Each structure stands twice: as structure tokens, then as C-alpha cells.
Amino acid sequence: MSSAVTRPADPDHLWSVDEHLEDILSTVRPLEPIELQLLDAQGCVLVDDVTVPVSLPPFDNSSMDGYAVRVADVAGAGEEFPAVLDVVGDVAAGAADLVRVGPGQAARIMTGAPLPPGAEAVVPVEWTDGGLGEGPVSGMRARSSAPEGAEGHVRVHRPVEARAHVRAKGSDVKAGDRALEAGTILGPPQIALLAAIGRGTVRVRPRPRVVVMSTGSELVQPGEELASGQIYDSNSFALTAAARDAGAIAYRVGAVADDADTLRSTIEDQLIRSDLLVTTGGVSVGAYDVVKEALSYAGDEDEAGSGVEFRKLAMQPGKPQGFGSIGPDHTPLLALPGNPVSSYVSFELFVRPAIRTLMGLTDVHRPRTRAGLKTDKAFCSPKGRRQFLRGVYADGEVTPVGGAGSHLIAALAQANALIVLPEDVESVEPGAEVEVVLLG
């Protein structure tokens, strides 16, 4: 990882949230498109418009199990005086050689089977005697056990209109239509449509590979015993889950001890599977802030342009942040604070948009709305800082949960929104309208 350098910055400059985000999004570029098999493309973003090569359905077909008939032959049919038709054969789904339905005739037909020539509509089997010579039936007998059902006579007890229970050719999409637009995220319904129109592969931007690692000698893997002074590592789990929720393929690296050489080696090992690296912890001003130490050394001349800059942002929580690129491919790296709430808020504001940009999406931000502040007392906000409070949003109102402390994970688990208090606001009264970032 010999390319990592800290770009010089005014240590007293306080970056705004918008400046930091703009720097990230102006640097991160969408991943190059690749051709993938359909199931491998799930969750990816479509690069090109997809045009329908063949209409869906490609032929008129039955939407019911029943009998294909001519409308005139069943006009006036009723329970007392049913229409009696000659059954000329079966039409099963996938059938190629179709019987012709002439005057006074019917063909037993299955759901999805092509409408045979001469037929104008389909009578559901429940409107007939099923060829048994008795009253209405509830279904057909299996052909294997009653092959005679495809011949003989059938009594129809109700009339039908033309095209009744017939799925028309092209009624879903027509040949030449645009099936999917470029920029569409491919989920199960989109994968189904691509398969239905015969596409075996599709050109997409791949899901970004995001590696998440937390730092701190005090961190212990969940499930292990805690010793004095230790805490469980929650940040790497939270951020890995958040990266997957954003659409990435995310890999969690176990907590790295407060040793610069170890961290440098770990980051270098992870570059091979990273489109984006995210670290949490070690970015403040303490003597053991290992991320700043590990990334603060000169790189090779042939890899100029790489570097990580550590900044102070005018926000709460999340003041200390780092951003830059490392390695021969200039892999983007976002260094987040170590306090759990600071880390998660920073992810939502900066990392999630970066992931969505790598995916090739244009709308990369969480939705926002306005809501009334539901609280019993006024809320204070530090002057000159944009504050993000956890909240529960419902029915046009948002209720703060937890305090302003950046370590309060339990309150974060209850929240479904972030309440945004701008830099020029120092106090917000109950009932005031506030901006809300919706998290889910």
C-alpha cells in the first residue's frame, strides 16, 4: 500500500457536510459495465435500454382450463338448455399441431395453451359438464386416467362473449416496445421479464465490492468473552449490513488492533477485492488514532494522485472524517469516526451515496421530507454545526429518540429517520417543522 499519502490540508478549516459530500461524489466514478447471466445480474443496474424482440404473450392463449368454442355455438346456453358440442381434441400448453374448431365443435384447452384456429373464446370448465353428461363440474380429470375426455360431447351451461378468457398476443408487451430503461435496478420482477423475452444475459454495472474494517485494540468479536476494558465490535457489523442494504457486495474484516503496520498490511491485502474501502475509528486527534498514522506516509512517484485527507466537518455527530484513494487502482477510501452513531450517520450521509454512484445510479440519496417535531421541550443545536438526531417518523411527525450522544446504539436501533437541524439553527421548539432523512 505504498501509494497512501495524506494530502496537505488546513487543519483549522471546517468543511461543510455539502463540501465533503461533493468532493466524494466528484471523485467516485461508476464501475465499468459487464455482461452477466440473469441471476448474476440481480441487484445490478441496467446499462442500456432493453427492447422487446418478441411480443408477450407471443400468441393468443387461454387464461382458463376449459373449452375453446365459437361464440355463436353457445349463445343462449343455460342450465336447463345447455349447448351440446362435439369435442374434437385436446390443446395443451406447448402444443404445436392444433385442431381446428368448426361449427358445433369445441376443443378441450388448458391454461396457457394456444387458442386453436376457428375458436373465438374459452368457456371455463366449471361452466360445463366436463363431458360427463351430468351437471357442472369443478375441474377436469387427468388425461392419463381419462383420455376419453378429449372426445365425445360437452354440455355448456353459460354463453360467452368473443375473446372471453383469451390472453391476446402482445397484451403484456409488444415486439419493439421498451421493456426496461437504462438505470433500472434488476430485482426479481425485472429478471423475470428479461427471461420472458428471451434474454439470457444482460449488460449491467456490477454491484460494488465494499470492504469494511473497524480499528481498535479494545474491540472483541461478538460471542467471545470480554476482558476488562474491552467492548464488542458493532461498527463493522452495522456498516457491512448497511453496505449490503445500499446494494453492495460487502465484506467484513475483523477488528484491527491499534498498530499502524498491521492496519497498512490489512488494507493492502483487501485491495484485491475492493471497489471501496471503509474504515471506522482512528480518525480523531488522539495518540492512538491508527488510521491517520497508517495512511500518513509518502507514496511512490508513479502512483501520484493517491492520498487520504483527514478533515473536520461542521456536523454533529461525525466531525472527524477522512477521504481519498489508495493503491495502484486509486481505490476510494472513506475513513469514518469510531463512535457507533457517528459511524452510522456518516455512512448514511457519505458512504451510501458513494456506493450508489459506483452502481451507476443517478438518485443516490435517501428520500427526505418535512415533519412536525413531536417533543415536550425545545432542542438545542450547536451553532455552526449541522446536527443529525435520531428519530421515529410516522404520519407527518417525527419523535426524537435518545440523546445527542454518539455512543447510544440502543436509540439508533429504534430510529427510522434522521432529524436534520441546520447550521444556523440553535434551538427548535416543539411542533416546529424540520427536515427528515428517511432511513428505511
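the 2nd protein, sequnce then structure:
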Amino acid sequence: METIKIKQVRSRIRCPKDQKAALDALGLKKLNRVVELPKNAAVLGNIHKVRHLVAVVEN
């Protein structure tokens, strides 16, 4: 299965609860953390919701 690496590049302070929940679902709790997740619709939807807080890391 294809995977995608994402990194949290901006702080979650002052973000709405739904965006904090999306970051938690992605496994991002601290700044500059990188996680590798499967590339499926659920993950891509969460990334889209917090696209201003995360960056996709090239493999």
C-alpha cells in the first residue's frame, strides 16, 4: 500500500477543536513531528482539513 509522510510545521494553538482532532487523528501532537500513514481517503481528508498546519515530506 502506498504511504505518505506528513510533518506538522505550524502550532495547533488557537486552532478550532475540529482541527486539533484532525491532527490527533493523524498522530501529530508536537511541532516538527513526522508520521508515515497509508494514503487513503480518510487520511487525505484529515490532511486537507489542516493543510495550513502540515507539510507533505518527499520520500
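The chain is about 30% helix and 25% strand. The beta strands are 3-8, 34-38, 54-57.
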